[in-house]
Amino acid sequence: ELQQKVEEAELLKMELQMLETERVRLSLVEEKLLDVLQLLQQLRDLNISKRALGKILLSTLESCHAPQPGKAHLFEVLDTLQQELAGCELLHQEPVEQGQSPQSLSNPLVISC
């Protein structure tokens, strides 16, 4: 009976260790997802087009193509998406002067109303 209790304790320790590992992994995914969402919010505030966002997303998915997606693949996709978004040219441009829209700077032929 004592041996059985020792074995149960060992199993519980292993399960606890697995849960802690999973908690850390989920915490990393959550941080990366928060970074991605913040970058998306910044880009939305800069009026990036849906087409440009779509290209970034497709580029990310193409560069992270894996035959068997899994937990590590999920983090790789998030990490790559975060890098692609952070590298977006709009985020690194000078701030827009008051009275001008970001679109009017990108195409001088557009008439803003």
UniProtKB/TrEMBL annotation:
Record-linked Pfam families: CCD48
Annotated InterPro entries: CCD48 (IPR031601)
Identification of the protein by name: EFCC1 protein
Domain of life: Eukaryota
